[in-house]
Automatic annotation (TrEMBL):
Organism: Pseudoduganella namucuonensis
Main subcellular localisation: cytoplasm
Segments crossing the lipid bilayer: none
UniProt protein name: Glutamine--tRNA ligase
Residue interval(s) of motif 'KMSKS' region: 297-301
Positions contributing to L-glutamine binding: D80, Y236
Amino acid sequence: MSNDKKNPATAAPALPSNFLRAIVESDLAAGTHVREGMPSVITRFPPEPNGYLHVGHAKSICVNFGLARDYNGRCHLRFDDTNPAKEEQEYVDTIIDSVKWLGFSWDWQGPSGTEVHLHHASDYFDQLYAMAEYLIDQGYAYVDSQSAEEMAANRGNFNTPGTNSPFRDRPRAESLQIFRDMKAGKYKDGEHILRARISEDAMSSPNMNMRDPAIYRIRHEHHVRTGDDWCIYPMYDYTHPISDALENITHSICTLEFQDHRPFYDWLLETLSAGGFFTMPVPRQYEFSRLNLTYVITSKRKLRQLVDDGVVTGWDDPRMPTIVGLRRRGYTPEAIQLFCERIGVTKSDGWIDMSTLEGCLREDLDPKAPRATAVLRPLKLIVENFPEGASEACSSPVHPHHPEMGVRNFPFTRELWIEEEDFMEAPSKGYFRYYPPIGDQPGSRVRLRHGFVTECTGYDKDGDGKVTAVRVKYFEDSKSGTPGSDTYKVKGNIHWVSAATALEAEVRLYDRLFTDPQPDAGGKDFTASLNPNALETVTAYLEPGMKDAAADQRFQFERHGYFVADRVDTRPGKPVFNRIVTLKDSWTAK
Ligand code: ATP
Ligand code: MG
């Protein structure tokens, strides 16, 4: 390893293999994409700006930007903005933010400076149009004037070949004239459509995508970027390969459902290359299986339904699998990247367990999250032999394995807060926390972590029989870290905060949004398995230093899990905390 570091030129990247890396490495070895002034690996992430990105998109982002990073290439962010009706600037902005937050950039240091590779398919509308005229001219496209219903009926299905349109053999000059008139706005939506004519018998192709696919349609719609310049818009299957080729993409990576679109992708680029539109070699498409994550839905449409129906508070609700939701919940970009690396890329469909993502999160947070104390379900503890108004300074490391992170200080006082569950009137077997004297047996002895050993002397109850306070005595010579303190042998060790200085704070205990591991599989109604306990809000007592927690700061609250100061609702001196994840997985065992 150390030799590799000294000589990067000969060092093989120490990356786990996957089929995409194998393809890229073999192309690099063969020099497939060596071109002047360009890297040999150029990928792209091509979202449609019609919603918020989710964890599935995060995988695609990590795959595409990750390959570029690992092989000295570049990755483009390209908005596939060819459907003016559904696209909005709000989505463009959040997508840009999300990709940046995940840790990626589309800037590339080229031979003549920084190149910014943020693109829009709409940048290519002129070229796309010119290429369509070329296809018509070459007999590879024609204007179809059937109604939408006729076209659907004539398309056939998986078992039945399609039927040629009566307009399929109309003269090229006639198609060209109508196409120009379509562009000039002489027709209404749906009156005509431009279709590819791949081969004589294309309408009987077993691949439905090859049956004279539509490449341009009339849409009298305002476009976010091109305004009212156009009233015809290119179809996705036509736009996508051409955008890839114009950007000199080398490896066009997408999910498996596009496998059947690849023959058209290849045909289109080959046909247009013959017309001299592109530099060779043209991009190649490769497919990998999409991410299916248990307890999560990743359809934009269904996520929108959760927002619209008020099941969640918005796209960035910490229970949402959107990137903005994960971010607000407290996920780190590093954890998401680690997760994508760990699950790898394959061609086989399957489900990844949510616990894998949560495991990556714990792995990332454990070494870096400062520790803090929080009592989530408070019960008063009274140290009867500790003087009222007095205070004893206590401290503990910010991180048990990183002394360089310093120490935190907090006072021990007569009244403290402990967790409700740390006291039992009648202890069950093996319970080592507080219980009162029973008969001639003394009460239990418990160490208050980083403080003193105490012995339970009694407890108070209200009229309803609810325990309102636990009473103890402390042993003055038992303070943690002082000589002789370890002569006290106790089995219970619990956390606490001083009632005199505790910070009262809202803590939101988040859990999975669904109880069914596959909430929408097989057309299931996902609203039927919404987890009623996906959010519980409590008023907790935190150690006093927590008042300075800034939005997005993450902590481990000892015994409870990882928490983040909510980026939306935290105010100076008044943090609101979200539980990111518990310390241990409580789902797999169920
Ligand atoms: P949705 O079905 O949720 O609307 P989409 O695929 O229509 O998502 P796009 O904006 O077209 O959304 O997606 C951009 C890229 O992200 C595409 O290349 C797509 O294949 C990829 N992608 C979308 N969902 C997943 C997923 N679950 N796993 C991996 N990649 C995904
Ligand atoms: Mg899509």
